[in-house]
Design brief:
4 helices; mainly alpha
Length: 164
């Protein structure tokens, strides 16, 4: 009788233990539901960041078009006008520097911004070289700077077009 009472007690403990395991499974299901909620929140945040990135890229594209237009005017202008255009380029460059992308986590947008800064710097270096040497036309020295800027500009435009 004692052995049977012990076995019955062991079976009851095992039964309670199994019931507890079922509760654990329910808790894990709730954790999974929480993970699904986090994934859904991340998806909606990602969609929002994507929209911000598109807006930023569109703004960047407009800025680059305006900058290139000013650069082309400065390149062909007389020396006095080159100085005026250079000031406008510098102003636009500084305005671009202050432009913030709310989606700062986006590596692609960050790369675009760096490429844009490199392009603008090279274009300004070209105009500044023409001004500092009192040149209205190209020389071999200035042509190399211009060609470097052309390569960067081409790469930038290609990347901007791929973002849309």
């Amino acid at each position: 009788k004692i052995d049977m009472a012990d076995k019955q007690g062991d079976l009851e403990k095992l039964s309670e233990s199994l019931r507890k395991n079922k509760d654990t499974v329910v808790i894990r299901e709730k954790v999974i539901d929480t993970l699904h909620q986090k994934v859904n929140e991340a998806d909606s945040k990602s969609a929002s960041n994507s929209q911000e990135s598109k807006s930023y890229v569109a703004n960047l594209q407009n800025t680059v078009k305006r900058f290139e237009s000013l650069y082309q005017s400065a390149r062909t202008a007389n020396l006095t006008s080159k100085k005026d255009y250079y000031r406008e380029l510098d102003s636009l460059y500084n305005k671009f520097l202050s432009l913030e992308n709310q989606n700062s986590d986006s590596h692609n947008v960050s790369d675009l911004k760096q490429l844009s800064l490199s392009y603008m710097s090279k274009r300004m270096e070209h105009i500044n070289k023409l001004i500092s040497e009192n040149l209205s036309a190209e020389t071999n020295d200035t042509r190399f700077i211009k060609e470097d800027g052309d390569k960067i500009y081409s790469a930038l435009i290609s990347q901007l077009n791929n973002k849309f």
